[in-house]
């Protein structure tokens, strides 16, 4: 390795995955694994722009792993994208917090994209607060992160140039971002909105209101949450002039409010539920049979539309 002629990372990417401890991998092997990884990055880490570190093979993060992860990040000074998978802490977060408070994670001044999947809230806190320079972060994905009360860390509100947000949050957290004096220029939102204690569909009117503060920048919105479009939604004035792509996991009720999306080119609904007693009042006539969808007047009512995709079509009894 010491005699390697140059850059062993021509794609600028590295994927580090801890060996599966459930397969009786001994401690010495794990130690050797990290020794090789850290040595590799010590010599060539400056060439890496995108890194994925997966702890999927480990039941929990021990202190040895924490030290090695910190060493890895210290040897990645030019990192632009970081993805962490399966970082679960062994019970006492206070010990972990004290560990990284005494010797914090390095600041990565080129870091633009952070993706955390199945990551403990304490780990998320230290990554976002220590590694990130707020103005540089443009993409943030928080998938199944274990943070208290599903409240996004306060530091996210300082990501003034954030363009992509993918997260599982209550709708009030999205509203909090929209109420900031310096709103992030969100272009793409992929959200799974926590439905609340009563597990009711998210209110359509409230979703639209939460999106409108980003009207000037938002072009792509995905919602992985059940929600109901009530009769009053047809009278709701929508101000999202630049929205081009809409993806819903579950949509119930009239599609008529979508007529107001003048720039919409792509509409995808995984599960669309029609309420028969209201169908006669729908302006958009969407035929049940897939082969007849091209006969629908939706193409006339939304002339910008180019792609329409329904994966399941249901009638509510």
What is the CATH architecture annotation of the domain at 1-162? Alpha-Beta Horseshoe
Number of separate helices: 8
**CATH C-level label of the domain at 1-162:** Alpha Beta
Helix content: 10-25%
Please describe what this structure looks like.
By secondary structure, the protein is an alpha/beta fold. It has a domain at 1-162: Alpha-Beta Horseshoe (Leucine-rich repeat, LRR (right-handed beta-alpha superhelix)), CATH 3.80.10. The chain is 24% helix and 26% strand. It has eight helices and twelve strands. It has helices spanning 27-44, 63-74, 93-102, 121-131, 171-178, 204-211, 276-279, 298-301; strands at residues 13-17, 50-54, 81-87, 113-119, 139-143, 164-170, 188-194, 202-203, 220-229, 245-253, 266-274, 307-315. Strands 1, 2, 3, 4, 5, 6, 7, 8, 9, 10, 11 and 12 form a twelve-stranded parallel sheet that branches. Helix 1 (27-44) runs parallel beside helix 2. The longest helix is centred in the N-terminal third of the chain and has 18 residues, at 27-44. The chain is elongated and about 70 Å long. The mean pLDDT is 83.
